[in-house]
Structure formats: structure tokens, C-alpha cells
Amino acid sequence: MAATAAQSRQARCGYARTVLAVAFPAAAFGTNCYVLAAGPGEECVVVDPGIGVEQTLRDVLAEHRLRPAAVLLTHGHLDHVYSVTPVCGGTTAAYIHGEDRYRLHDPVAGLAPGTLAMMEQQFGRRATWREPERVVEVTDRQLLALAGLDVEVLHAPGHTEGSVMFGLDEVPDGLPAEEALERTMVSGDVLFAGSIGRTDLLGGDDAAMRRSLRDVVLPLPDSTLVLTGHGPATTIRRERATNPYLRGLTA
User: Fold this and answer.
1) pTM over 0.85
2) Nearest 5°: phi and psi at 40?
3) Which ranges carry the Metallo-beta-lactamase domain (predicted)?
């Protein structure tokens, strides 16, 4: 019997199941947008479509023959959601935690005038906003079956009230086998390589962030790949050993 595409990917990466994963930065604030799929030619999920990502996203979808089945939002800040409505169109749903649902009403309204002016200068037009037609509120520990993927929702407030991380029991295809990674976590602005998301913005809470790091992040296996909201990917093993914000916390 011929091996399936999924089995072939799994064999190339040892015992870890793999997914197609493409990452690229938005046009502002260095926000990472992710496209995740079971393989080329399949449905996919888009995570955190930020400012000015539409053309790059179209190119990625065309290159890999992918069809968006859902848009996942790690939280409601403008730099992570700005392109959600054009990406969703009128049929694809946007998934966001209920505590951050209010942020989709008009995230532009909370921007400082200087930031609005910067965006207008960079993109040649004033920032505007239209809420997605279909919004699904997610909850902690919920399991989403989307695009052939099982995605776990982990509520980790602190950066915002409704910040979440999205977990998969697969890793991106092509990772070095010696990394011995078995799981992927899209962390949004909860955890970065060597840092964490800021808590001094509206809805931020330093105590809640410490609890999230202690109760949600630290229990994750060392073999977890972390795809961050800004900056390079990392691993829980690396962050447990080197991230100063995790020191002194006990899971």
C-alpha cells in the first residue's frame, strides 16, 4: 500500500507528525502572520493577519494551492487583526476569545493620533475598519477541528484580557530531527524569544500575565515549538532555560 502524504511527512521528521506552515511579517509592527495546513492543496487556517498582509497572503495561498477555512486571532490588538475582514470575506469565520470580542468592534478607535498618522503616511490612506461578518468566540481548552487540524485553545490573559495561544500536536515540515520537537504553540503576544508581551496597554494585567506564564506556559512540554507573535520562533526548552520572565516561577 502506498504511503499517504501525511505518512511521508511524518517519516521525514521522525516520529513527529508534521504540517505545512508558512510565516511572514506584516507591513507594520513586525507582527507575524501564519498559515497552517495539513499539506499543499488543502484547506488552511490563517493566524493573526495584521497590517498590509493581503497580497503576501494571496501569494502564499496560490503557491501552495490553499483555501482558508478559518482565521484565528490570538488577541484583538490592531496589529494582529487589521486584515481579518478582507481575509475572511463574507464566508470565513474569525475565531477570537470572548474576553477580546469587544476589540473587534473598532480597534482603530483606540489608536493614538500619531499612530494613525504614521499608518496614513506609510499606506497612503487613513486606517479604516469593518468588523468581520462571522465571528466565533472561543473558550479555554476548547478543541477546534479546522482544515483537517485539531487546534487547542489555551487562554493566557495578561497582554490582553482574551489573549490565547493555539496548540497543535504537529510541527512544521522540514524541522531538523535533532530538535526532537513534537508540538507547536502559536503564542501571539504571550511569549516571545527571551521576552513576553507588554502589560501596560489597555486591558493588560501584570499579575494575570505572571499567572499565565506559571499556569499555562511553564507546564508545556520542552518539546514544544513556539511560533511567536513578533520575532523569531523558539522552544519551551529554550525559554525555560533562558527567558528572564520565567525565572522564579513554579508550574
Assistant:
1) yes
2) -60, 150
3) 30-230
Q: What is the amino acid identity at position 249?
A: L
The pLDDT of residue 184 is above 70: yes
- b/e map 80-111, b = 16+ CB within 10 Å: bbbbbbebbeeebbbbbbebbbebbeebeeee
Domain range summary for the chain, segments of one domain joined by +: 5-246
Residues 184/167, Cβ–Cβ less than 8 Å: yes
Amino acid at 94: A
d(C-alpha 72, C-alpha 239), whole Å: 24
Which three cell numbers, joined as nine digits, stand for 145? 477541528
Q: Give mean pLDDT, residues 40-66.
A: 97
- Architecture of 5-246 per CATH? 4-Layer Sandwich (3.60)
C-alpha distances out from residue 59 to 65, 91, 147, 156, 202, Å:
10, 20, 19, 32, 35
d(CA 2, CA 210): 49
| Cα gap 17→19, rounded to integer Å | 7
Residue with cell 475582514: 85
What is the pLDDT averaged over residues 149-172?
97
Q: How far is it, in rounded angstroms, from Cα 179 to Cα 233?
A: 13
pLDDT category, 31, cuts 50, 70, 90?
A: very high
